[in-house]
C-alpha cells in the first residue's frame, strides 16, 4: 500500500477511523452518547475544513487532532460553573481545611496518608481504574476538568490557565485540592491498608 | 536560608515541583520537610501514582478491546458525511 499520496476520503472515515475515534473519546468522557457526539462533531468539522487539509499529516492524525480539540472544548464547558465565573475557584468540594489543621497546617490525624498495598502492580487493574473514575466523578466539575487536562491530556499549566481563564494561583489551588481528594478517595476505596 | 514549611504547603510544593514551578528556596524547604515527615513523603509518591493511574485508565478505555461505535451510529454518521460531501 502506498502512503505517498494522501487524499482525504470522507466517505471512508467512518469505516476506517470511526471505532478508533470513538474509543479515544469514550475513554475520556465516560458517556457513550457524549463520545458519539464528539465523533460526529469531529467528522463534520473535518468535512468543513477539508480545504485546509494539505496532506502534510496523515488523514488519521488530522482527525485525531480535531477530536482532541473537541475534547478540550468539552472539558472547558464542563469546567464552567453556572453561577461562578471561571476566574474563581468553585467553592464546593473539600478544601485544604478538611485535610490540614487550621493553626499549624499539619495533617489532621484522621487524614494521615497511609501506606498503599502493592500500589505498583495495582495500577494496571481494571477495578482500580474504575474506582479512580468514580472518584473523579465526585470532584467538583472544575477540579475534574483541570485534573484531566493536566494529567491525562498533558496540557501545560500555562495552557490550562489560558483555556479556562484561570490565574496561576487558582490553578494551583485546584490541582492541590483535586490531588488531595483523589488520593484520599483511592485510599478509602481500594488502595488503603484496611481494604 | 531554609524555611520550615507545613504539610499543607509541602503537599502543594510537591505538585509544583513536579511541574518545575518551584523556586530553589522552596525546593530546599520541601526537601527538608520530606526528610522528616513520613506522611508528606508518602503523599509525594502516591500523588504520582494517582496521575499515572488516570492516564492508564484512559489508555485502557481506548484500547481496541473495547466496543466501538454501534451500527446505528455508524450508519447515521455515514449518511451525514455523504450528505455533507454532496453539498
From TrEMBL, chain A:
The keyword DNA-binding applies. Residues 131-182 form the RNA polymerase sigma factor 70 region 4 type domain. Residues 14-80 form the RNA polymerase sigma-70 region domain. It holds the Pfam family Sigma70_r2. PROSITE patterns: SIGMA70_ECF. Keywords: DNA-binding, Sigma factor, Transcription, Transcription regulation. One of its GO terms (biological process) is DNA-templated transcription initiation. InterPro entries: RNA_pol_sigma-24-rel, RNA_pol_sigma-70-like, RNA_pol_sigma-70_dom, RNA_pol_sigma70_ECF_CS, RNA_pol_sigma70_r2, RNA_pol_sigma70_r4_t2, RNA_pol_sigma_r2, RNA_pol_sigma_r3/r4-like. GO terms for molecular function: DNA binding; sigma factor activity. Belongs to the sigma-70 factor family. ECF subfamily. PANTHER family: RNA POLYMERASE ECF-TYPE SIGMA FACTO (PTHR43133), RNA POLYMERASE SIGMA FACTOR HI_1459-RELATED (PTHR43133:SF8). This is RNA polymerase sigma factor.
From TrEMBL, chain B:
It comes from the Bacteria. Residues 72-87 have a biased composition (Basic and acidic residues). Residues 67-87 are annotated as: Disordered. This is Zinc-finger. It comes from Hymenobacter daecheongensis DSM 21074.
Amino acid at each position: 500500500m502506498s502512503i505517498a499520496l494522501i487524499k482525504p476520503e470522507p466517505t471512508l472515515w467512518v469505516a476506517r477511523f470511526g471505532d478508533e475515534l470513538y474509543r479515544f473519546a469514550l475513554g475520556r468522557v465516560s458517556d457513550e452518547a457524549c463520545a458519539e457526539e464528539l465523533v460526529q462533531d469531529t467528522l463534520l468539522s473535518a468535512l468543513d475544513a477539508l480545504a485546509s487539509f494539505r496532506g502534510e499529516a496523515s488523514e488519521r492524525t488530522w482527525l485525531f487532532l480535531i477530536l482532541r480539540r473537541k475534547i478540550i472544548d468539552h472539558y472547558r464547558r464542563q469546567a464552567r460553573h453556572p453561577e461562578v465565573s471561571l476566574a474563581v475557584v468553585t467553592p464546593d468540594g473539600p478544601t485544604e481545611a478538611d485535610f490540614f489543621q487550621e493553626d499549624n497546617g499539619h495533617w489532621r490525624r484522621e487524614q494521615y496518608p497511609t501506606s498503599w498495598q502493592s500500589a505498583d502492580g495495582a495500577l494496571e487493574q481494571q477495578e482500580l481504574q474504575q474506582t479512580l473514575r468514580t472518584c473523579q466523578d465526585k470532584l467538583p466539575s472544575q477540579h475534574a476538568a483541570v485534573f484531566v487536562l493536566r494529567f491525562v491530556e498533558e496540557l501545560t499549566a500555562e495552557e490550562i490557565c489560558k483555556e479556562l481563564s484561570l490565574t496561576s494561583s487558582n490553578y494551583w489551588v485546584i490541582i492541590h485540592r483535586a490531588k488531595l481528594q483523589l488520593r484520599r478517595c483511592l485510599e478509602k476505596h481500594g488502595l488503603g491498608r484496611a481494604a | 536560608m531554609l524555611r520550615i514549611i507545613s504539610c499543607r504547603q509541602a503537599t502543594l510544593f510537591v505538585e509544583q515541583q513536579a511541574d518545575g514551578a518551584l523556586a530553589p528556596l522552596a525546593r530546599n524547604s520541601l526537601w527538608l520537610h520530606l526528610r522528616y515527615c513520613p506522611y508528606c513523603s508518602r503523599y509525594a509518591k502516591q500523588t504520582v501514582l494517582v496521575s499515572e493511574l488516570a492516564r492508564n485508565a484512559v489508555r485502557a478505555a481506548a484500547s481496541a478491546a473495547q466496543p466501538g461505535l454501534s451500527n446505528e451510529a455508524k450508519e447515521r454518521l455515514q449518511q451525514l458525511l455523504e450528505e455533507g460531501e454532496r453539498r
